[in-house]
Design goal:
The chain is mainly β. The strands form two sheets. Strands 2, 4, 5, 6, 9, 10 and 11 form a seven-stranded mixed sheet that branches. It is globular and about 40 Å long. The protein starts with a strand and ends with a strand.
Length: 115
């Protein structure tokens, strides 16, 4: 069973930065894409950013130019660097990996941005 383990969440003031990590139990290049999603209280889970096997990245408009997704193939880890954080970025952040019709999720890590 594929496992994804997120880390790096926490509490930060508005304008600050956090870096999230997603450690994957398999070669990340086995997956069509690995990405970050978030879910705020009372809201639906939404895409933040993802990176496909070819290295193409995709960002939500709300985080474009503030967040950067990257990966380390040797470590089977995908990162999310979050800068200029805003209170509306507060959410549980989840890592997701998909291959064909199979989807795998991590347990999530809380990010809280205070104003």
């Amino acid at each position: 069973q594929v496992q994804l383990v997120e880390s790096g969440g926490g509490l930060v003031q508005a304008g600050g930065s956090l870096s999230l990590s997603c450690a994957v139990s398999e070669n990340i290049f086995n997956f069509n894409a690995v990405g970050w999603y978030r879910q705020a209280p009372g809201k639906q889970r939404e895409l933040v950013a993802d990176i496909n096997v070819g290295g193409r990245t995709n960002y939500a408009d709300s985080v474009n130019n503030r967040f950067t997704i990257s990966r380390d193939g040797a470590a089977n880890t995908v990162y999310l660097q979050m800068n200029s954080l805003k209170p509306e970025d507060t959410a549980v952040y989840y890592c997701k990996a998909n291959i064909l019709r199979r989807t795998f999720w991590g347990q999530g890590t809380q990010v809280t941005v205070s104003s």
